[in-house]
Amino acid sequence: MSTIILGIESSCDDTSASILIDGVIHSNIIANQTVHMNYGGVVPELASRAHQQNIIPVVVQALKDANITIEDISAIAYTRGPGLLGSLMVGSSFAKAFALTRKIPLIEVNHLQAHILAHFINDTKKRYEHPQFPFLCLLVSGGNSQIVMVKDHLDMEIIGETIDDAAGEAFDKCAKLMGFPYPGGPIIDRLAKEGNPDAFEFNKPKIKGLDYSFSGLKTSFLYFLRDQLKTNPNFIEENQKDLCASLQKTIVDILTAKLKRAAKEKNINQIAIAGGVSANSGLQNRLFELGKKNNWKVFIPQLGYSLDNAAMVAITGYFKYLKNDFADQSVCPNARMKINEK
User: Fold this and answer.
1) Which residues 6+ apart lie within 8 Å of 224 measured at CB?
2) Taking the complete model, does pTM exceed 0.85, yes or no?
């Protein structure tokens, strides 16, 4: 009899449902929320309301695409945290009600672990190459910038993390300073491809150990634009591409410098990236360059599995299902959940 997991992701502004059958993803449906573009960022109250509207349609479509019914589902896995509390509550409430009604196991999933375990996804189109344990994963998104040593599917240790802001937040905040709509990270990536990465120089923090800091970079970028605009009101418009390329290079430099140090200290050559910022072409290209230079085996998730999605929740739920690691109805969402928190 097949093991069929329904995965639910609702940590931020994307509502997603996925069906995994015997370790293989058969559907992965994502409903985006474009309303937040009008506000320059995610509005928590609007996000939770949209999740309530979207969650049943995405589940129905996921079941349809996988050609199964709710009676076939063995267990339901959902994102417990971290994320926006209101958004998490929608997914949690749905999963609990579904599990209770169907009398099937309930599996709570750590969103950060799920991003990393996206590297172990196989789908009906392709079987992907997976990293070998132990490996290092640079987890970078709008809310997190961490270097994680992955010892097993469910055994992970943070060895470096941001002490203030995340890399994804730096991309989006700096994009906003240039007048770009939300989310600004992908716009910077697109424009950077046509710019000169050495045109401008921005602040790189000197943080001990393997930790990161991006607040100083944002301040440096703000003051730089302020000073340039005093003498040339059209500075941003005239230098968009070079600004984007230089900013992206700075962020990638900061991220990869600590990753190189971690790989050397831990003597690990299996290197992966995960999270929304892993889709950044500048970061990907740099990682491949470092891989060739340092004899790393580099792993980058498929674009559809790097952003928030339920397939990564389903595969994490599958590994927990194999260990009978189930949750009960008393488990509450945890907006500030750490990667190794129970």
Assistant:
1) 200, 202
2) yes
Q: What value does the mean pLDDT take over residues 70-85? A: 97
Q: How many domains are there within the chain?
A: 2
Query: Rounded to whole angstroms, how far apart are CA atoms 129 and 151?
Result: 17
Query: Which CATH number characterizes residue 41's domain?
Result: 3.30.420.40
Print the domain residue range for 28. Answer: 4-127+305-322
Please enumerate in sequence order all residues whose Cβ is within 8 A of that of 271, keeping only pairs 6 or more positions apart, or say none: 135, 136, 137, 138, 259, 263, 287, 290, 291, 296, 297, 298, 299
Beta bridge partners of 147: 138, 160
> Contact at 8 Å (CB) between 17 and 61?
yes
Residues 6+ apart with CB under 8 A from 275: 115, 139, 140, 141, 144, 168, 306
Strand partners, 77: 7, 107
Angle between helices 240-266 and 185-192 (to 10 degrees): 100
Q: Quick check: 228 pLDDT over 90?
A: yes
**317 and 297 within one domain:** no
- Asked if 18 and 94 sit in the same domain, the reply is yes
List pLDDT tens digits, range 171-200: 999 999 999 988 889 999 999 999 999 999
